[in-house]
Design a protein that fits this description.
196 residues; 35% strand; alpha+beta; 5-stranded antiparallel beta sheet; 22% helix; elongated; 3-stranded antiparallel beta sheet; 2 helices; 12 strands
């Protein structure tokens, strides 16, 4: 603040005053826009540094209600990831948070999703036939294998239940987790509700 007040008072405002008159209301408005921009930048940085991110999906529904981001939002609300059609395998790659290697020994999946409604969002009934069935988990540590291959660590046949189902394996250091969905329960799409 001690640096910015003189900078704006003696530098930026006089330069802008040559283009148009800087009234007190315009100065306040400019300050609000700069504040909003600063918070937007910090939010983007925080998201890219702290949170995990879905970096690749081999298939996704054209409906924006069914994106990979819904897999890692911590909610089992019937939304999740969905494909446009049931062609296998489907791959989803998730970068773990903070861009560092984390020791992991399990991945939890919940297949629970609802039937797509008329508006594209979930309808009222569980879409059991489209739930992911057979899933293989692979990991990669970008710190030791930049651009390297994924190492398969486990697989599971998911039950048709609204519950987190765990795939446990020997502890590994990983920056990325890849889910390969090899089958569903016979539906025309493939859906997955939550990854943890």
């Amino acid at each position: 603040i001690l640096v910015l007040i003189p900078t704006f008072s003696y530098g930026i405002y006089p330069l802008l005053n040559k283009v148009f008159t800087m009234t007190p209301l315009r100065k306040i408005s400019l300050g609000l826009f700069l504040t909003a921009a600063a918070f937007s930048v910090s939010a983007l940085i925080e998201q890219n540094v702290s949170g995990g991110k879905v970096t690749h999906m081999s298939s996704v529904s054209p409906d924006r209600a069914w994106t990979g981001l819904k897999l890692i939002d911590g909610k089992a609300d019937g939304f999740g990831w969905s494909t446009e059609e049931a062609v296998f395998p489907h791959e989803i790659v998730i970068r773990l948070r903070e861009r560092v290697a984390w020791p992991i020994a399990s991945v939890e999946l919940n297949p629970y999703t609802l039937v797509s409604g008329n508006d594209g969002g979930p309808g009222g009934e569980p879409d059991r036939d489209s739930w992911a069935r057979r899933v293989t988990v692979s990991v990669r540590n970008a710190a030791t294998q930049p651009g390297g291959e994924f190492l398969e660590v486990g697989s599971i046949e998911l039950r048709q239940a609204n519950a987190l189902q765990s795939i446990e394996f020997d502890e590994v250091q990983a920056t990325h987790v890849k889910l390969s969905i090899d089958s569903n329960w016979g539906g025309g799409q493939t859906k997955l509700g939550q990854v943890r």
